[in-house]
Amino acid sequence: MGNTKPILLLGNLLLVKSATIARIVALFIFLLPSKTMTSPEHLRLIENLNRTLAATEMRIADRINRALARAFLELEEELRRKYPEYQAQGGLVAYQRKLLLLDQLKELLNPASGRDFRQDFEELLRLADGTGIEMGQRLMEISGEDFIRATATIPLDALRYAAEEQTRYLSRYGDEFASKASAAVEQALIQGWGVARLSKILRDQLEVTKKRADIIARTASLSASNAAAENLFRENGVEWIQWMATIDSRVCRYCSARNGNMYELGATRPPIHFQDRCFIVPVKKKFFEKGLIKEDWIRDHRAKGLAELEKKGLQPDYGISPFERASGLESAPKPVWKP
Per-residue pLDDT tens for 295-316? Predict the structure, then answer.
């Protein structure tokens, strides 16, 4: 019987080499596709940071709404005191009585005019900017890329301007409340309603104004966070971004249409409508050109969004969005890639 040691040694060597090669191949497969393009890991990160951002929005919006409620209570107290007096003046027509009463209440009619909300919005935008930078950095880390860490945030002048703009939006809704309050007072005087019924109508209208304050806070924070992420991507040579929609029963026609699409950096970014909840993910062109893309996962994510939309009896809208139309654009941005 011959010596079998050389054969055994050769077999063991092959086994060792095969195991090493298998590990290298497994590591190569793990690093390339999962560390380049959009993946479930990206989505989990976006969802976690979205919850952080939402908590900040709720805190600031709650503070604003408490101030609106306090202003309304002042109006309601004054209304209960003065309304019966003008209601009893039968010698004047309702319109005249309304004018006299509203003149007495004019300083209280707009619940958004009694306080400067700029500090609230400045705080919200600063926090949203920081969240956007954190999100951008971590998304790039997941993609396995070296990147320049951002140190600059929103310039102070830009921050103040943005906060003033959100305050103006809120003030417009306060003006709308004042206009509807004026109409309600006149109707109450004509119909002979008591102050309790009038107060109920005004309180319902206040709830509408408070909901709009929530919408303003959400839209402003998402705009700031996505802008911060976009600036970070630009500093790091990112050429494209991928649109990622939040998939649930609230997904809209515009965002489901863009979900998973890739666009040139700067061509578009959320929000494109009020209460938009989408985010952008960095995409380097070289990754795409090398075929390092999880197309099946992206298509599945997109299909889930379209299915949620279909449950509501809606179809995706591939056209220009409300905010894009308001900014003067005539057509929707063209994607460089669609799933």
Answer: 888 899 999 999 999 999 999 9
The pTM of this model reads 0.77
Three-state SS sequence of the chain: CCCCHHHHHHHHHHHHHHHHHHHHHHHHHHHHHHCCCCCHHHHHHHHHHHHHHHHHHHHHHHHHHHHHHHHHHHHHHHHHHHHHHHHCCCCCCHHHHHHHHHHHHCCCCCCCCCCCCHHHHHHHHHHHHHHHHHHHHHHHHHCCCCCCCCCCCCCHHHHHHHHHHHHHHHHHHHHHHHHHHHHHHHHHHHHCCCHHHHHHHHHHHHHHHHHHHHHHHHHHHHHHHHHHHHHHHHHCCCCEEEEECCCCCCCCHHHHHHCCCEEECCCCCCCCCCCCCCEEEEECHHHHHCCCCCHHHHHHHHHHHHHHHHHCCCCCCCCCCHHHHHCCCCCCCCCCECC
